[in-house]
Give the backbone structure.
Amino acid sequence: QVQLVESGGDLVQPGGSLRLSCVASGFTTDYYAVGWFRQALGKEREGVSWISGTGGTTYYADSVKGRYTISRDNAKNTVFLQMNSLRPEDTDVYYCAARRTSSWNGSTWNRANNYDYWGQGTQVTVSS
C-alpha cells in the first residue's frame, strides 16, 4: 500500500525559508515521479514543481522558479521542496503526489489528474 506523508510546513515571515519533505512508502522501485502542488481554500490545486524518478529532470511553475528547489533522496524514499524568499502569496496547503512510472518525461506534470497517490498536505503560512 502506497503512502505519502508530507512534513515541514510552518509559519514563516516574508523572505524566510522552509524545507518540505515527502516520505513515500510502499513503492518497490524508484520508478515513481513526484509533484508538489498547493491549494488554498476555494481555489484550484496548482502545480508547483516536479521531479523524475531518477531526479535528473525537474520542472517549476513560473511563480516559484528561482526560489524553490525540488530534490530527492531515493535511499530514504524522500522528496524535498526547498522554498526560499517566501512571499505571503505562497501561503497554502502543500501536497505531494506520486505516479508510478519509468517513462514519464514530465509532460503536463502540473495536472493533478496525472497522479495516482496523494499525501494529506502540510500548511505553509507566510506572514509577518
About this structure: Residues 56 and 109 are 15 Å apart (CA to CA).
